[in-house]
Amino acid sequence: MPGGRRGPSRQQLSRSALPSLQTLVGGSCGNGTGLRNRNGSAISLSAPPITALITPEPVRHCRIPELPLDGSLLFEFLFFIYLLVALFIQYINIYKTVWWYPYNHPASCTSLNFHLIDYHLAAFITVMLARRLVWALISEASQVGATSVIHYMVRLVLLTLCGWVLCWTLVNLFRSHSVLNLLFLGYPFGVYVPLCCFHQDSRAQPLPADCSYLVQDQMVDDGASAVSSLVKPKDFLSLLWDSLREQFNNPTSIPTHSCPLSPDLIRNEVECLKADFNRRIKEVLFNSLFSAYYVAFLPLCFVKSTQYYDMRWSCEHLIMVWINAFVMLTTQLLPPKYCDLLHRSAAHLGKWQKLEHGSYSNAPQHIWSENTIWPQGVLVRRSRCLYKAVGPYNVAVPSDVSHARFYFLFHRPLRLLNLLILIEGSVVCYQLYSLLRSEKWNHTLSMALILFCNYYVLFKLLRDRIVLGRAYSYPLNNYGLKAH
């Protein structure tokens, strides 16, 4: 209307009502940010840090109950009994007879061809399988608090007995078998030395209970140089001795998680846990393959050429022994408390998702900084690649594949436990199916004995899954925990 009051013009409204680009686009973090227009050219802006605009959501951890775990001596004893049962079953599969035939068609008066069994080989295998149990007994005797004389006497008696049995069996095996067969006796050790010993020089020393020892307050600026300074080159004999001693020693104590606030401390804690996890997995793989080799494969190498046995069933028994040994060792060396520790560290580490070029061209993009804790959904650039923050906390290196793998494995605390339950449950179901369809007495006996051992392992896994599933599904606010 003429003479009426006019409202603000379009130009004035756009200048006064809309916020500035410096308010919308988050920050430099001391490393520069930018907004990209439609032509792809970057518009450099001086913006406040991203942490000043968006505060990362604090990481909260669930409390899990203390689940019962078998002691070292008890586990080694049960594991040794299981291997002896599996060895007995393999000898039944190889040397079985048809002892139930009537007397007018006599086949054999016993259930096994005992005259074909090499008892020296059986004794050698038993000693090799008992090596972990013997060392557990020695370690337990040293921790009881007994006098030094009794401790050394127990160690001397056990080691002397095992050494004498090994020498006695090896001498008799050398007399009755060829050199080619004897090479199978030490094949696992010949494979272990080049595969594992030469990789020890590239790893750090044994981890203490606190993973944050690698980066103290005065070592934060040094970064990876401080970690590399802990690694000292060793000669071959030292590597071999450390490697063999590692196979007998009990697993080290579980490290602790201190919820570090510095990105450098978080990444170095992850490096500690990765090294410790790889060492435990290496021990699980070697000992499971070692057990399956001496239990199910080595007896087949010393069978006479005139002796008939079911090759398919024996190989199937070999696979079952390896899977069961792998699950049992993994359950013992990776307990729920240790998996929860890995999950907590993965929650602080975070993950980056790589995006295609041209996507999110109009969204704020930042230059990645190693000293910044990036919140969820932030876009960063590093090495000409665009990444998006996935976790609530993100301090991982975007281009580091090991960080992404660590987050994928452990950001869900029950992933490893579910995998073990799936493996063991599949084995039990297959063995039940084989037991129902078995027609030979040795198949029925072997499946029945192995199933008793697998029931115990599956029961422990299901118990841990039920308890931990309830614990992790419980609301975090009801714990009364502080955010870390």
> Which percent range fits the helix content?
55-70%
Q: Order of strands across the biggest sheet? A: 2-1-4-5-6-3
What Rg is obtained from the alpha carbons, in whole angstroms?
Answer: 31 Å
The total beta strand count reads 6
Straight-line distance between termini: 62 Å
How large is the count of helical segments? 17
- Whole-number average pLDDT? 75
How much of the sequence lies in strands comes to under 5%
Describe the sheet with the most strands.
6 strands, mixed
Helix/sheet category: mainly alpha
Low-confidence stretches: 7-49, 198-209, 212-233, 478-484
Helix/strand layout:
Layout: H1 10-16, H2 21-24, E1 33-36, E2 42-45, H3 50-53, H4 72-95, H5 119-129, H6 131-143, H7 148-176, H8 179-183, H9 187-196, H10 224-228, H11 236-248, H12 263-301, H13 311-333, H14 336-349, E3 352-355, E4 365-367, E5 379-382, E6 385-389, H15 401-410, H16 415-437, H17 441-473
Parallel strand pairs: 4-5
Antiparallel strand pairs: 1-2, 1-4, 3-6, 5-6
